[in-house]
Design goal:
With 177 residues, the chain is mainly α. Helix content is 56%, strand content 2%. Strands 1-2 form a two-stranded antiparallel sheet.
Length: 177
C-alpha cells in the first residue's frame, strides 16, 4: 500500500460515512447552516465543497478519487516526507487545501501564499532533519485555528481526538521512524 492509500484509509477512518447534521456548515450547499440545502457529508466529501454531487450516494471509490485529485495532488503531498504528508493531507480534507498549505508554510517559515512551490519544497528539504518538530508545529497551528472556530463547542471533542491521534497513526503506518 502506497503512502496515499495509507493516508486515505486513516482520513476516511476519521471522516466516516454519511451524516446530515444541520449544525454542521459543511453539510449545507451554501457552506453555512441554513443556506442552501442540507445534503450532508459522506466519506468527508461535503455538500459545501461539492454542491453538485449526490452526497448520500457517493461511493468509497468515488471519494478516494476525489481525495487523490482534489486534496493529495493539489497539496503535492506525494513530495512531502510521509509523516508530514499525512498531516497536511488530513488538514486539506478537514480544513481546505489553501489553509493547510499556509499552515505548512507558516511551520516552515516561508511566505504563506497557499501554493506548494519551489521555496516551500526547498524549505521542506532543508528541514527534513527536524521532521518531528515540523509535524508538532503543524498540528499546533491547526489546533489553534480549529479551537477558535464557532463550531468548536459542537465538534471540538472529536476534532481534538483526531488531531491527537494523527501523529500516532503516522507512527503505526510506519512513516515515522
Amino acid at each position: 500500500m502506497d503512502t496515499f492509500e495509507q493516508a486515505f484509509k486513516i482520513a476516511i477512518g476519521h471522516e466516516g460515512g454519511y451524516t446530515a447534521n444541520p449544525a454542521d456548515p459543511g453539510n449545507w450547499t451554501g457552506g453555512r447552516c441554513g443556506v442552501g440545502a442540507c445534503h450532508g457529508t459522506n466519506w468527508g466529501i461535503s455538500a459545501a465543497a461539492y454542491p453538485q454531487l449526490d452526497i448520500a450516494s457517493l461511493t468509497l471509490d468515488q471519494a478516494q478519487e476525489i481525495y487523490r485529485r482534489d486534496y493529495w495532488d493539489r497539496a503535492q503531498c506525494g513530495r512531502l516526507p510521509a509523516a508530514l504528508a499525512l498531516l497536511v493531507f488530513d488538514a486539506t480534507v478537514n480544513n481546505g487545501v489553501g489553509r493547510a498549505i499556509r499552515w505548512l508554510q507558516a511551520t516552515l517559515r516561508v511566505a504563506q501564499d497557499g501554493a506548494i512551490g519551489p521555496a516551500t519544497l526547498a524549505a521542506i528539504e532543508a528541514q527534513k532533519s527536524n521532521s518531528f518538530r515540523l509535524c508538532a508545529e503543524f498540528q499546533a497551528n491547526r489546533l489553534i485555528f480549529m479551537a477558535g472556530l464557532a463550531t468548536w463547542r459542537t465538534f471540538g471533542d472529536g476534532w481534538a481526538r483526531r488531531l491527537c491521534e494523527l501523529p500516532f497513526e503516522a507512527f503505526q503506518m510506519g512513516v515515522v521512524s
